[in-house]
Design brief:
Radius of gyration: 14 Å
Strand content: under 5%
Length: 81
């Protein structure tokens, strides 16, 4: 019998999809970041690999530099964690 707990829920995937949704709704984000997040989603779904996504957070012009409202920044933090 399967447990009714929420331990199987994929919060990382939720965070990536939320980031993509927010960026698609805004004219403030460059298309290459939307494409990058889509690749991150595919990497996670196919290989359970977050290394490429984590690489977006360092250096000049990184994913950190996008800024955004507190909600977006919160989801960035969740995805990074």
């Amino acid at each position: 019998m399967k447990s009714n707990t929420n331990t199987d829920h994929d919060h990382y995937l939720d965070a990536l999809e939320a980031l993509k949704y927010i960026m698609l709704q805004s004219k403030d984000y460059f298309g290459h970041w939307i494409d990058a997040i889509q690749r991150d989603i595919e990497q996670w779904q196919n290989y359970r690999n977050s290394a490429i996504h984590l690489g977006h957070y360092g250096g000049m012009g990184s994913f950190n530099d996008l800024g955004g409202d507190p909600y977006f920044c919160n989801i960035q933090s969740i995805a990074y964690s």
